[in-house]
Design goal:
The complex is a heterodimer of chains A (515) and B (362). Helix content of chain A is 33%, strand content 23%. Chain A is of the alpha/beta class and 515 residues long. Chain A has two domains: 231 residues, 3-Layer(aba) Sandwich (Rossmann fold), CATH 3.40.50.300; 174 residues, 3-Layer(aba) Sandwich (Rossmann fold). In chain A, strands 13, 16, 19, 20, 21, 22 and 23 form a seven-stranded mixed β-sheet that branches. Chain A has a six-stranded mixed β-sheet with strand order 6-7-8-3-9-10, with helices on both faces. Chain A has a four-stranded antiparallel β-sheet with strand order 2-1-4-5, covered by helices on one side. The radius of gyration of chain A is 24 Å and the shape is globular. Chain B has 362 residues and is mainly α. Chain B has 14 helices and two strands. A two-stranded antiparallel sheet of chain B has the order 1-2. In chain B, helix 3 packs parallel to helix 8 and helix 4 crosses helix 11. The chains are: A alpha/beta (515), B mainly alpha (362). At the A-B interface, helix 11, helix 12 and strand 18 of A face helix 9 and helix 10 of B.
C-alpha cells in the first residue's frame, strides 16, 4: 500500500511515450506527460496537432500503437470508454450528444447503469447542481436549453460517475463570457476537491487563468511543457504555432461609403422543429465597414445567413437590398451577380464538396461569373487558373496539383473557400464563423484578408461566436439573440461585458428579451 | 459484435477498377454453385454462358443488339443516380416510349396516306415520340416528389406495372391487328417505320450506333457542362448545390425527364428495330437490368458501355443454357440479381473500410 506521501508524489495519470499511427500517418509521436491530483493541465496546440487523438487514447476510444498509460502508477489498458469511466476518467465533449426531446434527467439516465431509478437520479442531479453551482432543472426538455445549460448536463453526467480526472474539450467555445465565468467557478470547485482536469483549448487567456501546467503539441509531437501562468498569451501562441503570429493591421483612418447591404425588418419563420425564427432583423451596412454579429450558437445566425445569401428566399422582396436593389425574392446567383459573395459556416458539404477537386470547388460558387461558363460549357482551363490563383494568394497547402477538397486540413480548406470569394472582389461579403476550427496562422490570414477587403471599399458582414475575433476586426458589433438583432454598438466603445449581457438577452435598449 | 464502416481517406485507382471485376467474379462463383446444386456442370455452364456467345459472328452481333437498349437506359439512369434520385421505373418508361412511337407506325400503316405526304418523316417522328413518351411517364414520379414529397422509388416502380398492363390491354384491344387472327399483337410495321439494318441480312440495326452516340454524349455532358456539374454536385453535397445556386426541384424534373427520354428512346428502338410490331411483352426486363448496368459501369457512361455488354451476355448465354443445358430461363434473372448485390457490396468496400469490433462498445 502506498503512503499518503507516495500517493501525492505519484501522478494521477502518466503517459509514457505514446505513439499513435494511422497507416503511414503519425498522429501522436512519443508523447509523455504527467497530471497530478488537484491539478489543471492544459493541452494546447493547433487543429491537427494531435490533441483529440491523445485524449481519445486517454478516454479509451483509441488504442495507442506504442507507449504506456499509468493511472496512479499502475499500467492501465482500456477497452473502450466505459472502462475509462470505471477507472475514474470522465470526459466532457465539445459537441454535445444530447437528445433534444428528452429531459435533462432522461438524458443523464441514458449513460448510467440501467437499474438507476429516475426518481433517485433527480435528487442526485440537484445535489451535483447545488454543490458545484450549476443551475440545472432535471425536468426541462433539452431543446429549450441554452448551450451553457446543455454543457452543464454533460458535466453533471460526467460528475455523477465521480471521476478523478475530467477531460474538457474546448468547453467555452459555445458559451457567453458570463457562462464561461460560471464554468470556471465550477472547475475551481472540482480542482479544490482534488480532481484533476485535462483542459483542451486554443483560448490561451483561459489556459493562463485556469491551468498550472501545460503540454504544447505541434504536428503530433510534444514541443514543450510550461507553466502557463508564467507565460504571456503571445509566447504561448508562438510555442503553439512555432513562429510568431502577425498582428492584424487595420488602417488607422476609415472612410465609410454609401449603404451597400440593407436589411429592413427581415422576419422569417424557421423550417426546423426547434429552429429559431428571424424576428424583425434590421441593419445598414456601409461600404468599407466590417460589421460583426455576435451571439451564442443557435440564436438564428445560420437562419440569417440563409436569408441574406438567398439560399432561402425572404417573403418580401424589399426586406433585403444590395446597393439599393431589392433582392429579397431573388436567388443566390442573382445576388452574386450584384456583387455579393458568401462564405457559409460549414466547410465540408456546404462551402465545398469534399470529393470534388479544388478547381471544381472554385466553379461551385463562381460558375455564373468570370466567364467560367459559356453556352452551358465549363471553361476548365480558366477555372484551373483561378483556382491556382486562390491557392497561391492565400498560401493553401495541399498535396498534388489539384487534390480533392477533403484531403486539405481545415485551415487550408477554409483559406481556399474564403480566398475563392475574396478574389472575385465582391462589393459585399457575408461570412459565417470564418475561423472556426482553423489554426492560428490561417485565422490571422483570413482576418487580415477581411480587413483588407473592407479597406478596398467593400462591406463585410461577419457572423462569429468568437468575441476576440469580433473585437479585433469589426467597426460595429450587434448581437443576435433568439432571432432578434440588437442595436449596433461601436466596437471601440463597447465592452465585452456589455456584449455578453446582450448575448444572454439581458441587454437594455437592445430590443432583445429573454422569454 | 459490431460492424463499423469507416470512410476511406483515399480510394486507390486499382480498387476502383478492380471492384466491379471482383464483383463479377463473385457473382459467377455463386452462380456456379447454384448450377452445381441443380445437378449440372458449372464448368459447362460457364462455357455456355460466357464463352460460346463470344465465338460466333452472329452472336456477337446479337450481343450488340441486346446491349443497345441497356446502354441507352443506363446512361439516363446514371444521371438520376448521380444526383441521388432513384428512378426504378425505367422499364415502364421503356414501354411507354415503345408504345407512343409504335402508335405512329400503326396509325400511318396506310399506303394511300403515305403516298399523299411521303413517309420519310415517320421514323424520325417515331423516335421523337418514343423519347417524349418516356420523358412524360418519368415526369409523373418526379412531379409527385417535387409537389408532395412522395418517394420516387415507390412511385416510379409501381408505374411500371401500370405501363405493362396498359400495353397488354392496347395490343389486345385498340391496337390489335384486325387481320391478325386475334393474336394479341399489332400490325407489322412498314419498312419505312423500321430502323434500318447496318448491312443486308445482318442483325445490327441503326439503334446500335445511336446507343454509342448516347453514351459519348452522356459522358461529355457529365464531365464538361455546367449541367453535368450540377448533377454531380447535387448527389455529392446537396447543401453545396443549393449554395452554388442550383434549384433542386428543377434538377429533379430535368434528370427524370432525361432518364425517361432515353428509356423511351430505347423502347422505340427495340420496337422499330428488333421486334417490328407491338406485342404484349416488348422487353425482357431491360429497364431493371439497366439498373445493374448503371452500377456495374460505376455510373459512368463509358463504364456503362462495357457493363451493358456483360449483362447482354447473360441474356444470350441464358437463352443458350436453356436450350443446351435445359436450365430454367429464370436463372438469368437470378444471376443478374446476384450480380447487383455483389456490385453493391464491392462498391461499399471501396468506399469504406469494414471493421469488426468485438466486445461491448458504447
Amino acid at each position: 500500500m502506498m503512503t499518503e506521501q507516495e500517493r501525492r508524489a505519484t501522478p494521477l495519470l502518466s503517459l509514457r511515450g505514446i505513439v499513435k499511427r494511422f497507416g503511414s500517418f503519425t498522429a501522436n509521436d512519443d508523447i509523455s506527460l504527467d497530471i497530478h491530483e488537484g491539478e489543471a493541465h492544459a493541452l494546447i496546440g493547433e487543429n491537427g496537432a494531435g490533441k483529440s487523438t491523445l485524449v481519445k487514447i486517454i478516454y479509451g476510444l483509441l488504442e495507442p500503437t506504442e507507449g504506456e498509460i499509468l493511472f496512479r502508477g499502475k499500467p492501465m489498458r482500456l477497452n473502450g470508454p466505459q472502462e475509462a469511466r470505471a477507472q475514474g476518467v470522465g470526459m466532457v465533449f465539445q459537441h454535445f450528444s444530447l437528445f433534444d426531446n428528452l429531459t435533462v434527467a432522461e438524458n443523464i439516465a441514458l449513460v448510467l447503469p440501467t437499474d438507476t431509478p429516475l426518481s433517485a437520479l433527480r435528487g442526485r442531479i440537484l445535489e451535483v447542481s447545488e454543490r458545484y453551482r450549476m443551475p440545472l432543472d432535471p425536468d426541462r426538455e433539452v431543446w429549450s436549453l441554452s448551450a451553457g445549460e446543455r454543457q452543464r448536463i454533460e458535466i453533471a453526467r460526467c460528475l455523477l460517475q465521480d471521476p478523478r480526472l475530467i477531460i474538457l474539450d474546448e468547453p467555452t467555445s459555445v458559451l457567453t463570457p458570463q457562462e464561461a465565468e460560471a464554468l470556471f467557478d465550477t472547475l475551481a470547485r472540482l480542482k479544490a476537491e482534488g480532481r484533476a482536469l485535462l483542459y483542451i483549448s486554443h483560448k490561451l487567456e483561459e489556459v493562463r487563468r485556469l491551468c498550472e501546467t501545460a503540454t504544447i503539441l505541434r504536428l503530433g509531437r510534444k514541443v514543450g511543457g510550461c507553466d502557463p501562468r508564467q507565460e504571456s498569451s503571445r509566447s504561448l501562441a508562438a510555442l503553439m504555432v512555432g513562429a510568431a503570429i502577425n498582428d492584424i493591421k487595420t488602417p488607422s483612418t476609415r472612410a465609410f461609403g454609401g449603404e451597400r447591404l440593407t436589411l429592413d425588418s427581415l422576419s422569417l419563420p424557421s423550417r426546423e422543429i426547434h429552429g429559431v425564427d428571424l424576428d424583425g432583423v434590421s441593419l445598414r451596412l456601409r461600404g468599407g465597414e466590417v460589421f460583426g454579429i455576435a451571439g451564442v450558437a443557435g440564436n438564428g445566425q445560420s437562419e440569417l445567413f440563409e436569408a441574406v445569401s438567398g439560399e432561402r428566399l425572404a417573403d418580401a422582396n424589399e426586406t433585403i437590398r444590395i446597393d439599393g436593389a431589392a433582392v429579397g425574392a431573388r436567388d443566390i446567383t442573382a445576388r452574386r451577380a450584384l456583387g455579393a459573395a458568401f462564405v457559409p459556416e460549414e466547410r465540408n458539404g456546404h462551402a465545398a464538396a469534399g470529393d470534388f477537386s479544388l478547381t471544381e470547388n472554385l466553379i461551385l460558387s463562381r460558375h455564373s461569373g468570370d466567364g467560367l461558363t459559356s453556352r452551358g460549357l465549363i471553361n476548365f482551363e480558366k477555372a484551373r487558373t483561378l483556382a491556382q490563383q486562390v491557392i497561391k494568394t492565400f498560401d493553401v497547402r495541399k498535396a498534388g496539383p489539384d487534390p480533392a477538397a477533403r484531403t486539405l486540413s481545415g485551415g487550408n480548406l477554409q483559406k481556399f473557400v474564403v480566398g475563392r470569394e475574396i478574389l472575385s472582389e465582391p462589393k459585399i461579403l457575408v461570412i459565417n464563423q470564418p475561423t472556426w476550427g482553423v489554426d492560428a496562422a490561417a485565422a490571422a490570414t483570413i482576418r487580415q484578408a477581411l480587413v483588407d477587403l473592407a479597406a478596398r471599399g467593400a462591406s463585410v458582414l461577419l457572423i462569429s461566436q468568437d468575441l476576440d475575433e469580433l473585437f479585433e476586426i469589426c467597426d460595429r458589433i450587434a448581437v443576435m439573440h433568439e432571432g432578434r438583432l440588437s442595436q449596433p454598438c461601436d466596437a471601440r466603445a463597447v465592452t465585452r461585458e456589455e456584449i455578453g449581457l446582450l448575448m444572454t438577452g439581458d441587454g437594455s435598449g437592445g430590443g432583445a428579451h429573454a422569454h | 459484435m459490431r460492424i463499423d464502416l469507416e470512410p476511406r481517406a483515399t480510394r486507390p485507382l486499382a480498387l476502383e477498377i478492380g471492384a466491379p471485376i471482383l464483383a463479377l467474379a463473385g457473382a459467377i462463383l455463386i452462380g456456379g454453385l447454384v448450377v452445381f446444386l441443380l445437378g449440372k456442370s458449372p464448368a459447362l455452364a460457364f462455357e455456355v454462358y460466357f464463352i460460346n456467345p463470344l465465338l460466333e459472328g452472329w452472336s456477337l452481333q446479337e450481343l450488340a443488339v441486346k446491349a443497345c437498349p441497356l446502354v441507352m437506359i443506363a446512361v439516363g439512369l446514371s444521371f438520376c443516380y448521380r444526383a441521388n434520385l432513384w428512378n426504378i421505373g425505367a422499364e415502364g418508361q421503356f414501354i411507354m416510349g415503345g408504345l407512343l412511337g409504335g402508335w405512329l407506325a400503326i396509325a400511318t400503316h396506310d399506303e394511300a396516306f403515305q403516298e399523299l405526304i411521303g413517309g420519310w418523316w415517320i421514323l424520325p417522328t417515331m423516335l421523337v415520340l418514343g423519347a417524349v413518351g418516356g420523358a412524360i411517364y418519368a415526369l409523373v414520379p418526379a412531379l409527385l416528389r417535387v409537389w408532395l414529397g412522395a418517394s420516387e422509388i415507390l412511385t416510379s416502380l409501381m408505374l411500371v406495372y401500370v405501363a405493362e398492363l396498359g400495353l397488354d390491354w392496347l395490343v389486345r384491344g385498340p391496337l390489335k391487328d384486325p387481320n391478325g387472327f386475334n393474336f394479341p399483337q399489332s400490325v407489322v410495321f412498314d419498312d419505312i417505320a423500321r430502323l434500318p439494318f447496318l448491312a443486308e441480312g445482318e442483325r445490327l440495326h441503326a439503334g446500335v450506333p445511336l446507343a454509342l452516340l448516347v453514351a459519348l454524349l452522356g459522358a461529355f455532358v457529365l464531365a464538361r457542362t455546367i449541367f453535368g456539374f450540377e448533377v454531380r454536385l447535387a448527389g455529392e453535397a446537396p447543401r453545396a448545390a443549393r449554395f452554388a445556386g442550383f434549384d433542386d426541384s428543377r434538377l429533379t424534373l430535368t434528370v427524370f425527364a432525361i432518364s425517361g427520354a432515353l428509356a423511351g428512346l430505347a423502347g422505340i428502338c427495340e420496337v422499330a428495330g428488333q421486334i417490328g410490331q407491338l406485342t404484349p411483352k416488348i422487353s425482357p426486363g431491360y429497364g431493371f437490368t439497366a439498373i445493374i448496368v448503371a452500377f456495374l459501369g460505376r455510373l459512368s457512361p463509358i463504364g456503362i458501355l462495357v457493363a451493358a455488354l456483360v449483362l447482354a451476355l447473360t441474356y444470350i448465354g441464358g437463352e443458350a443454357a436453356q436450350v443446351e443445358l435445359s436450365l430454367n430461363n429464370d436463372m438469368t434473372r437470378a444471376f443478374q440479381g446476384v450480380l447487383l448485390m455483389c456490385v453493391l457490396i464491392a462498391d461499399t468496400a471501396t468506399r469504406y473500410r469494414i471493421r469488426l469490433t468485438f466486445g461491448a462498445a458504447r
